[in-house]
UniProtKB/TrEMBL annotation:
SUPFAM superfamilies: Phosphoglucomutase, C-terminal domain, Phosphoglucomutase, first 3 domains. Its cofactor is Mg(2+). The keyword Lipid biosynthesis does not apply. GO terms for biological process: carbohydrate metabolic process. Belongs to the phosphohexose mutase family. Residues 9-125, 160-264, 270-383 form the Alpha-D-phosphohexomutase alpha/beta/alpha domain. One of its GO terms (molecular function) is intramolecular phosphotransferase activity. NCBIfam families: PRK09542.1. Keywords: Isomerase, Magnesium, Metal-binding, Phosphoprotein. Residues 388-462 form the Alpha-D-phosphohexomutase C-terminal domain. This is Phosphomannomutase/phosphoglucomutase.
């Protein structure tokens, strides 16, 4: 009798669990059948791939069994980054699934799903319906067989993906750049040589210095989560030691990219958002778009909307989270969107996120300038931030109430996502967001100078942790 409760692995935007405990071949098989039924995919193609985690290939096979039993046709697309899945779903106009747990540790695996055209699926758009039907199939111990069984075929999409990206950003005539890339033993170790190197396409004026390109889901060198500063240390050292112009760090499934300047210092994702936004706005304007729309989440630097307005574009603020960004990209006709977590979304990439394309835009800016990246980054990063700070707080509402009371009428208050306090005269803002999954209150803030940032940080933390 099944004892696995799928509510443990189905999250708001994807499926993620511990292999052999909350995600197994049986749960995958049932999820595949439910995916076909809920999205009405019988007789249609579903693209299925995986990252380099050891359980990936077995899960792909289990998914194929469950989906073909319900009449869908499976196209196995092999080892892929998550943005390769979005590319394939967009180009093929087919639903798809990749097995990945992104930056989570080795014992995890999961599923990221998309509808045809790379449209995201979340708890609000069918994911929990898939979960509930899969639980029924799992509890019953069998999947009902469709009258017509689906087929299984294979297709390699890496070259098409690389060509597609190169057609969006031309790097063939930039000045030569030395680029250190830390793939963290994740899928960037496969996509970087294909897109930026010469493993499939002609070489570019890029001298790639590889760090941890071997695909290894046990992550022997460091966790594939560049959001944590400790996981950037090797890249920062290598950039300085090699005298490189830039460093790039990808997460495990290579849909996020973090950037390091020639001094070994991180360039904030807000600055990267501004850099790419400027390129995309100017390109859209040259093609006749009067007021290009840029999407950003509410804890991105206000330098982004300020730049967008200055360039004649329109900025739209959204909640944190990729499903919100993608939905607003579609509804507002956004050409580009960026998040503080280094997810970057492109209209030309089916409104989906791709770290590689964002990296190519930054390489284009750097390669067409005589300035160093630290100089360029400083131009787009005029404000000061301590980064996200988490406080373990039992009563999060009470902590926010203390801050609200202390700040009084000196601030404007917004409750779009958590609570944002923006000072009316001093030019700083702070956002407090309760974690949905942990006993943390997350604080992000920004101020016009270092002293003000440190003062506000300390004052707010004292109130939060009182």
């Amino acid at each position: 009798m099944n004892t696995i409760d799928l509510t443990a692995s189905f999250k708001a935007y994807d499926v993620r669990g511990i292999v052999g405990e909350t995600i197994t071949e049986d749960t995958v098989r049932a999820t595949a059948a439910a995916f076909v039924d809920v999205l009405e995919l019988a007789g249609q193609n579903i693209l299925v791939g995986s990252d380099m985690r050891p359980s990936g290939s077995d899960f792909v096979n289990a998914f194929a069994e469950g989906a073909t039993a319900r009449g869908a046709n499976i196209i196995k697309i092999g080892l892929i980054s998550t943005d390769e899945l979005y590319f394939a779903c967009g180009v093929e106009n087919a639903a798809g699934v990749t097995f990945t747990a992104s930056h989570n540790p080795a014992e995890y695996n999961g599923m990221k799903m998309a509808k045809a055209g790379a449209v995201p699926i979340s708890s609000e758009t069918g994911l929990f319906d898939v979960r509930d039907l899969a639980q029924q199939y799992l509890n019953a111990g069998e999947i009902p067989q469709s009258e017509t069984q689906g087929t299984v075929s294979e297709k390699d999409i890496l070259k098409d993906y690389a060509e597609y990206l190169r057609n969006l950003v031309d790097l063939s005539n930039i000045r030569p750049l030395k680029v250190v890339v830390d793939a963290g033993n994740g899928m960037g170790g496969m996509t970087t040589p294909a897109v930026l190197g010469d493993s499939i396409l002609p070489g570019l004026p890029l001298d790639i210095v590889p760090l941890y390109f071997e695909l290894d889901g046990s992550f022997p060198n460091h966790p594939a989560n560049p959001l944590e500063p400790a996981n950037l240390v090797d890249l920062q050292k290598a950039v300085v030691e090699h005298g490189a112009d830039i460093g790039l760090a990808f997460d495990g499934d290579a849909d996020r990219c973090f950037v390091i300047d020639e001094k070994g210092q991180p360039v904030s994702p807000s600055a990267i958002t501004a850099i790419v936004a400027e390129r995309e706005i100017k390109r859209a304007q040259s093609e006749g778009e009067a007021e290009p729309v840029i999407i950003y989440n509410l804890i991105t630097s206000k330098a982004v909307p300020e730049l967008v307005e200055k360039l004649g574009g329109r900025s739209v603020k959204t909640r944190v989270g990729h499903s919100f960004i993608k939905a607003v990209m579609a509804s507002e006709g956004g050409i580009f969107g960026g998040e503080h977590s280094a997810h970057y979304y492109f209209k030309d990439f089916f409104n989906a996120d791709t770290g590689m394309l964002a990296a190519m835009h930054v390489l284009a800016v750097l390669g067409n300038s005589e300035k160093q990246l630290s100089e360029i980054g400083a131009e787009y990063q005029p404000y000061f931030s301590p980064g996200e700070i988490n406080s373990e707080v039992e009563d999060k509402d009470a902590a926010i109430a203390r801050v609200r009371e202390a700040l009084g009428d000196s601030v404007e208050v917004s409750e779009m996502d958590g609570t944002t306090f923006e000072h009316k005269t001093e030019g700083w803002w702070v956002n407090l967001r309760p974690s949905n999954t942990e006993p943390f209150l997350r604080m992000n803030l920004e101020a016009p100078d270092q002293a003000a940032m440190e003062r506000v940080r300390d004052e707010i933390l004292a109130l939060v942790r009182a």
